[in-house]
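**User:**
If convenient, please work through this fold.
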Amino acid sequence: MTNETSLPAEDGTFLVAALYHFVSVPRFADLREPLQALCEDNGVRGTLLLAHEGINGTIAGPHAGIRTVLGYLRSQPEFAGLEHKESFAAEMPFLRMKVRLKKEIVTMGVEDIDPTRSVGTYVAPEDWNALISDPDTIVIDTRNDYETAIGMFKGAVDPNTKTFREFPDWVRNNTGLHNKPKIAMYCTGGIRCEKATAFMKEEGFDEVYHLKGGILKYLEEVPAEDSLWEGACFVFDERVSVLHGLEEGEHKLCRACRHPLTAEDVTSPLYEAGVSCPHCHATRSEDDRLRFRQRQKQMDLAKKRGERHLGK
């Protein structure tokens, strides 16, 4: 049943809020059910992660609904200082609402890394170009390979990690990172860099910087003509990617492997909607593809009925 709070704004857009906050929350499990209910009652969808170390996630919905949820979060003493980043979507970019309890709000897998105790120096988007253009700076993209595949800052080092858990070993195995005095790090919204810079400080790096608000804030505030960003920024929702001004990009998503796809990928003979793409075709069995075809068929039938097939 659709009620007024689940509808988009008068201009037809849904408000998207990306947020995270590192803070000690011993009672984090108690927040899950009321937060889940509040989001559902206000037509808000997305994913929020709660852990002892704080909150992380992205939600979307009607403007009033998002304001209500953010207001509730900031009414909790632990999240009074919560910041968020806003963008807009022409269609609801999430299928459901999930509030999950986790061990970490961003999983690095290294014990005792606490961004509230030690973290790198924040750099505002307007000052980022000068830092990464400095020849004494090594620029590191802390995201995973499927994200860096569609866009990076000019001259940045790509660790080619498949998960954030691989990042600590990558740092420890790259002694050349000590060759320059400054390390500048960035990620989508800033949260991975909170832990990544804290980790780098623990590893003995002195001058460690990170982009405040992440790529999303940079694309929002820095004009395209002054930008050192190349390509699009992968986002974890149905928009798939965003460009300068946080406009929706043109990438599609492979439903089999979740890899962003370019127009060239979609024309490949290895691409089949919902079944395979050039990035995953060789790793899937015929049984996998048969199962994915059945799922895609159900999604197509649901779309014809005007419904959304959520799948598993």
Observations:
- The chain has a mean pLDDT of 93.
- The domain at 121-231 is CATH 3.40.250.10 (Oxidized Rhodanese; domain 1).
- The chain is about 25% helix and 20% strand.
- The chain has three domains: 14-101, 121-231, 261-305.
